[in-house]
Amino acid sequence: MKILIKGAGDLATGIAARLHACGYKIVMTEIAVPLTVRRSVAFSRAVYEEEAQVEDAWAVLVQDMEGAGAVLEEGRIAVIVDETAGIRESYRPEVVIDAVMAKRNIGTCITDAPLVIGIGPGFTAGEDCHFVIETKRGHDLGRVIAKGCAIPDTGVPGEIGGYASERLIRAQADGIMEPCAMIGDVVEKGQKVAETGRAAVYAEMTGIVRGMLQPGVKVTKGLKIGDIDARQCREYCETISDKARSIGGGVLEAVTRYERQKYEWGSRYAIILLAAGSSVRYGANKLLEETGGMPMYQHMLKALSTFPALHRIVVSRYPEILEDAERLGMQAVVNRQPALGISHSLILGLQEAIAENTDLKGVLFAVCDQPGLKADTISRLLRKAQENPGKIVCAGRKGRPGNPVVWDQRYFKELLGLAGDTGGRQVMKNYPGDILVLETAEGELWDIDRKEDMTQ
After folding, report:
1. Which residues pair with 407 in a beta bridge?
2. Cα–Cα distance for residue pair 261/310, rounded to 1 Å
3. Which domain of life is it from (predicted)?
4. pLDDT at 310
5. DSSP labels for 47-79?
């Protein structure tokens, strides 16, 4: 599998090293003058040294896709100066990881690749990427976030060896940076460790220099140019940090989740979201009503965004829903005859799914007015359907079937023959012995039909 990592700093390198060790092909992008402090354990060093080794992995600077291909064939990691990650167009990675660590999204979209992962604050899973990896030191470091954001940047560095902000070395003036201490040197508090714009920079604590920018870099006042570690272990200066390894582990988990979806379900199942109803009992378009801080329909789109390996189809007549679906990399299908009932939406979606994959084993149908439904429940439904071929698998409560429903391919012909506004329940009545109910929390099954339902 081909993976593109935006950024080649120490955290990005920790990610790359972990993925490379598992056999993935890695291309990394960097800026022309890297500002990696922990450069002894960063592949960004290859930009000005032409190659870089970090532990057992080697990275080589390349100029274009042809050079990258040759390096990948050698089993090494390719690094290219490419601030906008334009190589993505020719490399065509299956996974894009934004590890620039800009604390904000500076150009990554969820449609950049089948799987897009954002590292740290600045990204929202389900909006501009599929997963976010937590980077703040503490209990959640390395956690894979499938909905929402990482902890916001506090501006306060994580504590190492009992020190936090004191361990950072910052530029005291604008200008050229020249180090007076090298990575691996032990320095004392108050010792001069660098000059920036001819202004002296002093250590605020005693310890070993774990990171220092390369000489001759143009810096601005306040920029982080170095790092001191009170633990004074030289090995820590030359090996990937616990933080980078943890983040790399989170990325590896997200990638393998995607692979599992792809190989277990991707060629077998599709997901169809029905979102064309007229909301007659509600008295307005309920799908656009706000609940939980966002329009109702967006809850389901976010849930489906955690299944990038599956063909996801959204059938609607509402431009807002169709546009959002396309933005999130889903297929948008317009229902131009909503008066024909839910069966027409069902047929439109199923026809598209079958056209895309004639060997489809099953389809999960979901509705858009269940904002409490969790992505994990969708996973459980697909897994149960896979384990029980030929069955109709429904989410439900106390044996009573509800939505979503996974239909085996054996029922496709009858589903395509439906008419009116009763949907698949017409077919379910003919096969009561084939229905399997997956017990689901009541709050997930809550659907909104009337305005008073919004207050429950």
Report:
1. 363, 392
2. 7
3. Bacteria
4. 96
5. HHHSEEEETTEEEEEESSHHHHHHHHHTT-EEE
Residue 314 in 3-state DSSP?
strand
Q: Which helix (H) or strand (E) holds 367?
A: strand 362-367
Domain range for 183: 165-230
Task: Report how far Cα 427 is from the mean position of its chain's Cα atoms.
Answer: 37
Q: How far apart are CA 380 and CA 377, in angstroms?
A: 5
The answer to whether residues 277 and 327 belong to one domain is: yes
> Six-digit token pair at 399?
């044996």
User: Residue for token digits 């002296």?
Assistant: 200
User: Dihedral sign, CA of 240, 241, 245, 248?
Assistant: negative
Q: In what order do the strands lie in the sheet with 217-219?
A: 199-202, 192-196, 175-179, 217-219
Cβ-based neighbours of 417, under 8 Å, separated by 6 or more = none
Give me the CATH number covering residue 205: 2.40.50.100
260 inside domain:
no
So what's the pLDDT on residue 291?
86
How many CA atoms lie within 13 Å of 269's alpha carbon, on the beta-carbon side? 29
